[in-house]
C-alpha cells in the first residue's frame, strides 16, 4: 500500500494558507521539525515539500542557518505552465486544443485591454509592451529571447483587463507552448520573414488597444494566433481551430 502520509502536511499547508496563518514570505520549519510536529517520516516531509515546490508555493534553499529552509511563495504561472507543458508533451492535451483555448481567452482579454480605464498602470503596461516589441525588432536578438519577449508582450496586454486569473492562465498557456513554437521554427522556410510579419501583427494589436478599438483588437489577436499556428501546424497536419465570436464563447463557458 502506498504511503501517502505526506498528504497530511499538504492539507495542513493549504488550511493554514486559507486561515491566514501562513503568508507569502514566511519560512517553514526544518524537515526534522515538521516530521516531529506532524508525526510523519522525514522522507514523507521531503515528498510534500517537493510537491509544494512543483506547485510554485515554496522555494527551498540549501545550507544551514537562519536563511536555509523553504520560503512560502506564490508563482502560479510557473506551476501551471510546467504542468501544461508536460501534458502537451504526452499528447494528453493536443496543441490544437491549447490554441483553441488561447483564441477563446485572448480574444476576450484583447477587448478588455482596449476598454481598460486610463491609469498610470495602463500607460506603464503599454510602454513595457512597446519595449518588448522594440527589442524583438533588433537583428541581434536571439530566437530564444524573441520568443520570451513575444510571451511578455501578450502578458502585458492581457494584464490590462484586470482579471488576475485570466491573466495567469493566458500567460501559462504562452509559456507552455514555447517549446512547441521553438521546435516549429526550424521547419519554417523563411523565419526572418515570419518574424517581420509577427511584428507587424503585434504592432497592429497594440495600435488597436491604444486606440480603444475593442473589435479590431479582438480580431487582430485571433488572426495573429491563427496565422502563426497555421504555419507551425502544416508539417504536423494539425487542424487549425477557428476564432469564435463572443456569443459563441459564452456558450462554451
Question: What is this structure, in a nutshell?
Answer:
The protein is mainly α.
Main structural class: mainly alpha
Which whole number gives the mean pLDDT?
86
Q: Count the strands?
A: 2
- What value does the Rg take, in angstroms? 21 Å
Low-confidence stretches: 248-253
What is the helix content?
55-70%
SSE string, helix = H, strand = E? HHHEEHHHHHHHHH
Main sheet specs: 2 strands, antiparallel
Overall geometric form = elongated
Distance between the termini: 40 Å
Q: What count of helical segments does DSSP give?
A: 12
Strand order of the largest sheet: 1-2
How much beta, percentage-wise?
A: under 5%
Give an overview in words.
- With 253 residues, the protein is mainly alpha-helical.
- The chain is 68% helix and 3% strand.
- It has helices at 6-18, 31-38, 42-54, 76-89, 95-115, 120-137, 143-159, 164-176, 178-184, 191-210, 214-234, 246-252, and strands at 58-61, 69-72.
- It has a two-stranded antiparallel sheet.
- Strand 1 and strand 2 form a beta hairpin.
- Helix 6 packs antiparallel against helix 10 (191-210).
- The chain is elongated and about 60 Å long.
- Residues 248-253 have low confidence and may be disordered.
Sum up the structure in keywords:
12 helices, two-stranded antiparallel ribbon, 2 strands, disordered C terminus, mainly alpha, 253 residues, elongated, single chain
